[in-house]
Amino acid sequence: MTRINISPVTRIEGHAEVRIDLDSSGGVESAHFNVVELRGFEKFMIGAAVEEAPRITPRICGICPTAHHVASAMACDQIFGADIPDTAKNLRELLMHGQYVHSHSLHFFMLAAPDFLIGHDVPPEERNILSLVKKEPEIAKNAIKVRKFGQRLTEAVGGKPIHPSSAIPGGMSHAITETQRTTLLEMAEESRGIAEKCWSLARDILDKTDLSFGAVETAFMGSTENGRYSVCGGTTKVIDANGNPVSAFSGKEYANHIEEYSEDWSYLKFSRLKDGRFYRVGPLARLNIVDSMGTPAADAALEEYREKFGRHVQTTLAYNPARYIEFLASCERAVEILSNPSITSTDVRTEVDSVVNTRGVGIIEAPRGTLVHDYTVNDEGFIEKCNLIVATCQNNWAMDKGVENVARKVISNGKISDSGKNQIEMVIRAYDPCISCATHAIGKMPFKFTIVPKRKVINLKNEKTELGVEDA
C-alpha cells in the first residue's frame, strides 16, 4: 500500500495533515483529515475555581479566545445563579462582534482569498497573502483596517486585544467610556463601509463555486433568536439536510441531542446527533437556519447568496461567502450597538456570592460554529468535571469526507499535482478549522510532503510551501 501525506495543511489555524492511502492501481482507497496533537484543557481545568475559567479558557487559542471567554462566563452565570444586566449583555455581544470582524476578515482576505483571487492552480509560492498584496494592494489595506478595528474593539471591551478578561460571573468587570464609544463608532462605520464595498469580491466567488466540490450531505446546527441571526444567546436549533426542524434546545439539554466519539486516525474528536446523523456548524449552518441577518446590507447579501445556492445549502465552498455575510453583519451590528450612548452605562454586573447550581453550560456561536462549555463544580465552586465541544470537532466528519471526495478527483495513477494538493486543502480551509481550539501540541510540525510505499519511506523535500497564519 502507498500512502500520500500532505503535511501540514497550509493557511489554517494550527497544524494538521491529510493521509491518503492508495490501492494497487494508484487510486484512492481511503483519505482522512488527520490531527495528532493532544488537547488537555478538560483535564487541567479540574480543581480550578470556576470563576477562574473565563480567564483560563481564552488561552486555548489566540485566534478565537473571545468565544471561549464569553461561553465560559455564561456557564459561570448559571452556576452562580446570576441574571446579568442588559448593558453587560450588550457589551458581551459587542465583544463577540469584534471577534467575528477580526477572525472572519482574517480568513476571507488572507487565507481563502488567494485561492479565488490569485487562483487555486498557480504555483504555491505565488498563492498567498504576499502575492495578494502585490496584485490587489487596496484589498490588503482594507483587510488590515477592519482587522485593526476588531482588535481595538476587543481591547476596549475585553480589556486585552488577544486574551480578553472582562467577562466575569454576573456580567462584565468594567464599562466603556464615552470617548471609547465615539472612537470605536468611527472605526465601526469605516469598517462597515469597507465590508459593504468588498461584498462584490465575495459575491464573485458565488459564480466561481463548484457545487460538487468536497460534497457531503448533513444536517445543520446553529443558534437563532426568533429566526434572527444571533452570535450570543438564543436557542440552538438543528435542521435536517432539507431544512426540516429536528430539535431545539438550550444549556445542559445539549447532551440529549449530540454526542462525541473518536476514530483511530485522529486525536481530534468527532460529534454527531444522538440518532446517528452527522451535522455541520458555522457560517453555512447558521445561514441555513436563520430567516434573516437582522441588518440591511447583510440581509441584501443573504438574498443574493440564496438566489445562487438556494434556501438550504450543502455546498462546501459556500462557507466562504457565508462567512463574509456574517462579517458584514457584525460590522453593521457593531455600529448599531455603539450608536446607543446607553452602552456606556456602569450597570454592568450583578453581584454573585455562592454556588447556586453545581452545573453550568454556556453555548455560544463562535466564528467557526457552535461552542459548548460545560462545567460541573462542588459546593465550594471548584471544577470537578469540564467538557468543551468546539466547532472543529463538530465539522470533523464533514471535513474528513470532503477530503476523500476531492482526493478521488485529483489523484490518478498514484500521482497528485501541486494544484491537486491545494484543492484538497481548500476543502479544509472552507471550514476555517481551529486546530488549537480542538487540540494542543508541543513544538511545531515540519513542512514536508512524503509518499510512503510499504516497507520503504521516501521523503520529498517540498521547497514550494505556502504562507500560513504564523508565517505571515
Walk me through the structure.
Helices cover 41% and strands 18% of the residues. By secondary structure, the protein is of the alpha+beta class. The protein has 14 helices and 17 strands. The strands form five sheets. A five-stranded antiparallel beta sheet has the order 3-2-1-16-17. Among the domains are: 2-35 and 405-460, no CATH class; 73-235 and 281-344, Orthogonal Bundle (Cytochrome-c3 Hydrogenase, chain B), CATH 1.10.645. Helix 4 (86-119) runs antiparallel to helix 10 (319-338) and helix 9 runs antiparallel to helix 10. Mean pLDDT is 87; it is low at 440-472. A hairpin with an 8-residue loop joins strand 10 and strand 11 (270-273).
Can you give the mean pLDDT?
A: 87
In angstroms, what is the radius of gyration?
Answer: 22 Å
**Unreliable residue runs:** 440-472
| Amino-to-carboxy terminus distance | 37 Å
Number of strands: 17
CATH class of the domain at 73-235 and 281-344: Mainly Alpha
CATH superfamily of the domain at 73-235 and 281-344: Cytochrome-c3 Hydrogenase, chain B
Strand order of the largest sheet: 3-2-1-16-17
Helix/strand/pairing class, anyone?
A: alpha+beta
Q: Major beta sheet, specifics?
A: 5 strands, antiparallel
CATH architecture assignment name of the domain at 73-235 and 281-344: Orthogonal Bundle
Give the CATH topology of the domain at 73-235 and 281-344: Cytochrome-c3 Hydrogenase, chain B
Q: How large a portion of the residues is in β-strands, by DSSP E?
A: 15-25%
Taken from the alpha-carbon principal axes, the silhouette is globular
Per DSSP, the total helix count is: 14
Question: Oligomerization state of this entry?
Answer: single chain
| Secondary structure: helix percent | 40-55%
GO molecular function, one term: ferredoxin hydrogenase activity
Family: Belongs to the [NiFe]/[NiFeSe] hydrogenase large subunit family.
Binding site for Mg(2+): 42, 388, 440
Binding site for Ni(2+): 61, 64, 434
